[in-house]
Amino acid sequence: STLLQVDLAGALVAGGPSHTEREEHVVLEVTQTDVPGSRRWRPQQVTQNWTVFLNPRRSERLVVSRTFEI
């Protein structure tokens, strides 16, 4: 297996005032597929999802990280 570190940086703030109770978020999808010509009998595909919720009040810059095993 391989490790992949993903960093998301910036002002992770929801855009504009929200009159509904819904939450805004960013979804990242990391996918690894076997390369063509691989010797595996069945192709393998690994997908990881990561949801980062946006804060409607804070505007400071922050960094969130996650490491995926693919």
Main attributes of the structure:
two-stranded antiparallel ribbon, elongated, 70 residues, mainly beta
What do these coordinates show?
This protein has 70 residues and is an all-beta fold. The chain has one domain (3-69). It contains no helices and four strands. It has strands at residues 3-10, 25-33, 45-53, 62-69. The strands form two sheets. A two-stranded antiparallel ribbon has the order 1-4. A two-stranded antiparallel ribbon has the order 2-3. The protein is elongated. The model has no long low-confidence stretch (mean pLDDT 70).
In short:
Helices cover 0% and strands 49% of the residues. The protein has 70 residues and is an all-beta fold.
Chain-wise SSE layout:
Elements: E1 3-10, E2 25-33, E3 45-53, E4 62-69
Antiparallel strand pairs: 1-4, 2-3
| Succession of helices and strands | EEEE
Instruction: Please report the number of helical segments.
Output: 0
Spatial order of the strands in the main sheet? 1-4
- Beta strand %: over 45%
Structural class estimated from helices and strands: mainly beta
Termini gap: 6 Å
Q: Determine the fraction of residues in helical runs and give it as a percent range.
A: under 10%
The number of distinct β-strands equals: 4
How many structural units, i.e. domains? Answer: 1
Shape: elongated
C-alpha Rg, in Å? 17 Å
pLDDT below 50 for ≥5 consecutive residues: which ranges?
none
* Mean pLDDT over the full residue set: 70
Main sheet attributes: strand count, strand direction, barrel closure: 2 strands, antiparallel
